[in-house]
Amino acid sequence: MTADDTIGTGDLVVAVDGGGTGCRVAIAERSGRILSTANGGPANVFSGFDAAVTNIVETVNAACVAGGISVEQLRQADAVLGLAGANVGDAALRLPKRLPFRESLVLWDAETAIRGGLGGEDGAAAILGTGSVFGAVHGGTARLMGGWGFVLGDQASGAWLGRRLLERVLLAHDGLLEASPLCDVILSRFGNAPEEVVQFATSAGPQAFAGFAPQVLEHAAQDDAIALDLVRGGARFVTASLKKLLPEGASRICLIGGLGAQYAPYLPNEITVMLAAPKGNALDGALAIALERYGAA
Amino acid sequence: MTADDTIGTGDLVVAVDGGGTGCRVAIAERSGRILSTANGGPANVFSGFDAAVTNIVETVNAACVAGGISVEQLRQADAVLGLAGANVGDAALRLPKRLPFRESLVLWDAETAIRGGLGGEDGAAAILGTGSVFGAVHGGTARLMGGWGFVLGDQASGAWLGRRLLERVLLAHDGLLEASPLCDVILSRFGNAPEEVVQFATSAGPQAFAGFAPQVLEHAAQDDAIALDLVRGGARFVTASLKKLLPEGASRICLIGGLGAQYAPYLPNEITVMLAAPKGNALDGALAIALERYGAA
């Protein structure tokens, strides 16, 4: 700060949570008091870097307008951004130059989500939505695992459940697997034509496959053999990942994401005894990291 | 035939084998004597319909020129085409209108390959290459199974082996699976950066994944635990499919395609005792079907 700074300048931190469907911004004083928030468009820096830049900047500006925050204050603010896609490619290096902040720390949104869920305590978390990522926090340091994406990873995720379901529908059609009621439901939705299932899969992305996950979980609850087998397979992966990650001495496990809580009934007792409700979301996590890093001493 | 037909007109059949890397044409008399053959460009009617039409017509024309066959003779000829991609979409219905023959029967190249391999005898066959398809012939009638493609099917294929290998490389990297020498070889090829494996997978098609299959088979032969597990998993699928398909009383099984023979050491005795070398290729199969259907009585 120079002697010319007006009161308040340099006093702000910005937290951003950005994903494939939208972004959220919170601007706070370095003491932690939130001054303004805003929601905006998608901000996945891997699949759409320029759109992400535009949407983040617009949403930040909207929050500034709402909170009466000046451009000069923003220029002196430090930001932590948890963004989908920041784990691959070089967006985390390129992005700060495009942002209006003094310093910008770009993290993978999995890290901010896990930090938000555990609320700064030691523990492990599973993020189970369209994709899957696992992570742990130990002494304030986060460690992430998995999240390698739809083609090679994201085991136990919604997309993983959906694709494997359709795979089994075709195996059952070929008589290599006993069909279950869920298979029949799915195949009939495709006019009982396996070719239509294949056509769908040719152009379907992770979100389209994940659209079948609710049915898998519903039918698993009704003891459908194939649905149960898929969910149990996912639960085994969740269990192995959490056990691998849980820091010694820690006993807090969070299930985050749209499918997180739905896996609970399929997890073993050694995991469920440690389950705790998430303390916050990914924006909370980004803000917590921002305050830790840039907050008032 | 009408009284106006000149000698030779209407006496020809055409066989076409078309796939993702090229097509082959044979023109024969209805007695079976081959007059001319030619090779040409790719002819996958699902991934590139118009290119397939162009390449097939050009290659047929080249065979006509080489064999001194007239346009009029071609117009009276009947054709059987075994083409990649003919099992999905409506190409099999649209294609005949674009071809210069009297009648055109468009089949999936899996059917002509299985027919060529079994040479008209009853039996079952596995086509194991970049993809996988299984089939049987019983009393001259072919039945096909599988071949649902990279995303949902093609179990035991080269692309399946390759994708599952990369999946395991990432699991081993995350410590969820014990790494094997093959894992280390593959990860080091990607500069020991799992992100690079994911980047590769994002844009890789089935053929790129199948590029890893030779290494999987090589390392399986050297008792690499992960390679062995993958190949044995594929072999179990091949076994189940062949047992499901083999017609009663038949005892001939053919392994076709670049990976076919390489699975033999991993198949159980009940299968290997029935293994027979393929009698011919997919062009032979298309020609055999053409002669059966359109040949001299």
UniProtKB/TrEMBL annotation, chains A, B:
Domain ATPase BadF/BadG/BcrA/BcrD type, by residue range, is 16-260
This protein's source sits in the domain of life called: Bacteria
User: Where does this protein have coiled-coil stretches?
Assistant: none
Gene3D superfamilies from the UniProt entry: 3.30.420.40
**Which Pfam families does UniProt cross-reference here?**
BcrAD_BadFG
InterPro entries xref list:
ATPase_BadF, ATPase_NBD, Euk-type_GlcNAc_Kinase
> Which PANTHER family would you find in this protein's record?
N-ACETYL-D-GLUCOSAMINE KINASE
Name of the molecule in the record:
ATPase, BadF/BadG/BcrA/BcrD type
- Biological source species: Nitratireductor basaltis
